[in-house]
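Hey all, sorry for the wall of text incoming. These are the two entities for the joint prediction.
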Amino acid sequence: MKIAVLVKQVPSSESMLPLSSDQTWIDEGQVSFVMNPPDSFAIEEALLLREKIGEGEVVIVSMGPERVKKTIKEGLAKGADRGIHLEEEGKIETDPLSNSKSFSSVLKEENFDLILTGLQSDDTGMGQTGVLLGELLGMSTATLAMETEVQGDSIRVKRELESGWFQWVKLPLPASISIQSGLNTPRYPSLKGIMGAKRKEIKCVSSAEHRSGAQTQFMEKVFVPQTSKQTEVIEGDADTAVARIIEILKSDIKVL
Amino acid sequence: MHFSIIEKVILAGLTLASLGSFGYEVFRRVAIVNKGTGSFPFDRIPERLFRVFREVFLHEKVIRERPFPGLMHALVFWGFLVFGLVTIDHFAIGFYKPIMSESAHHAYSYIVIPFAILVIFGIVSLAYRRFITRPKALGGMSPTSGLVAVFIVVLMGTYIYGETGLSPLVWKINWWVHSVIILAFMYLIPRSKHLHLVLGPFNIFFRSFSQPDHTPVHIDLEGDEDELDAMLNDLTKLTKNQALDIFSCVECGRCTDVCPANRGGGILDPKHHFIMDLRQPLLDGKDVSVLDQINIEAGWECTTCQACTEVCPVGNHVEKSDEIRRLEVLVEGRVPQEYQKLFTNLQETGNTEGASSSPFADSFPVFTADKEYVLWLGCFARHGLDPNFNKSVENFTKILDVAGVTYGVLAEEQCSGDPANRLGDKLTYTMLREHNLEQLSETKKVVTLCPHCALNLGKEYSQYDQINYTVEHHTQVIGRLIDEGKIKVKMGESGKVTYHDPCNLSRMLDIVDEPRTAIKAASSDFQEMDESGRNTLCCGAGGALWWKKETKGRTHLVRAEQVIESGADTVVTGCNFCFGMMKQGLGPMTPEGREEVIVKDVADIVAENLVYDL
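and here's what came out:
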């Protein structure tokens, strides 16, 4: 079984996130980047599937500037077989559709049986790339898998729904599935894995090769949430106060 | 007394069988010990011999930990020494003729008979304890111990009986009973915990002077694969010293009695998990690659406080969490999620919290060559693991300022690596150590408030590299400033004061007196806790357990509970982690209607009572 895991590199949750001077992204100079935590569950699931089936290949696929090589290597150190790096220069593309197109152009010829992603990235949190890529490659797709089970040329997936409900679905392979965090216990790279990762192949694809069209989505402006406190003291007798509260509930908060 | 040739042949046969079996069993174990890595130390021989004198002949540790049973054991042991000559003489009679003249024998019996009575008293007391009182630490029923108790009583009895002027026939039967029991005892010794009679003194002689004592893991990221494989393979092997420990264990359970994880309700049982679980695999495999037999869950519970090692009466380095954790991290890659996060933080940012800056560190002067000390802050202070501790750091710098001692912090200070080191991530530890050694290359003196940093920057780093600086804990500097009269401290109003010895400070760095000098200068009502000095009880944060998410037990609360029970108004400590643990533990534990015990660092109690106009 040939499995691809899409892995993103994101700012660590402890990092300070200063805005860039033009306020269209963050100033990456002071940020420490780590593997998107949900993706580590997808890598683990891929490695577990390979171990269970007893054969196969796990490929770490990532997009971004040179720094993402470190994250690919982390996946290789954990036991993945090789990596593919879709290079990016200049502005970071945040549009999931155009990113999925890039991924599909590179992964088309690989003919993966399975593509796994984390449920979403901790930076932009779109949660769409894996599904879009699956559609572009004509694969069956499912999201939020809590359990996976390969059965011949199909895969059974336990999907998380709302309020504690879940469903089992059976997807024909090839399939693209997003993995819910917490379904397994991600391993730590062993020393042998870290040393061995140095010799594993990372294929680089330049942005000119994988970007087909112009960027379709742009980041206008990024803001730091402003905290403010607005308190209205309602004065007058009970009737006036009630009238005012109803008005607020109706027109301001719109719950009535 | 005449022995016929048949008797002599039987005696010779029995003696050969007994000694042969004894020798074979001992040799078998020594051969396994010899396969261990490293070598036995032969440095500081006078100190080692003196230690053997104190701990073997005087039974110092045996008695200190458990006074009554310890003294009973000492009676049996001293009796054995006295009986040495008697036993040689006893067999000499059977084979040929006595060594001692009749009058000498008679005179010596005036010493031996009282000892024989003391031995009987001792062994009966010990048997009573083992079979009637049955303390948990001793473990399940041990038939061998019962047999040995009977043997010793009969040996003493037959000796005394033999001195009472018996008829030749009765004397001879008595003689044979005595002989057969001695020979049976020889057979039993190597097959049971009684092997400590033979190995104990050697084990105490070879014991490391340093705690903790783990083989350093040298990682060469540029090295070739064969070297790496050999290094990883060695991680499962015991050192010679560790292998000798396993066979020397007397199964008394003192280590488990003092273990903070065990006392807090955890599963860790150092006697079994770190020692006894390895004995049979050693014998079965005839090899020392047994460290992977250590219970993993138990290994993660250890606070690495070294209480087990400190207390061992036969000189074992009991604690082996380092060994099992590094196997888990470096070989298996099985690491609890919270520690993976910690390691990532350390790798990415060089600090435990993943912080990109430290405003607190920026509030201190930067170190320059004209300053005396590098003030090493450590992650705890730099990143406010307990923000209350910031004040303690400032109090220390206030003391330095008053004394006119110059200092500065390093802008590029990273974690000393203590959590990575203790959790077995020797690769991350290597990265941090190399970074810090570079930062400290021009440094002569380092002072820190964190005993974990002090231990690593000093003793632990020097296991890997040559270090050109000295490391002091701030309590040492404060103690010295007081002794030299550079600062003056008045008796303050802290009520009844007690001191909690941090493990890293007392057991590992042997700093016990200096903090007391400082506290006693500022308090007239100082009282020791029951467990203090090198016999302190861990606060629960050691071994990087500060970052552990879930603990089954109450390891982190037991010490705080003791502080409350001590009736102190103020508890002083010398470690930022202990400080944080006390603060967390004391609040919820304080009974209603009682004032919460105030937690202070040594720097706090001194700075609060500084007299400025010298």
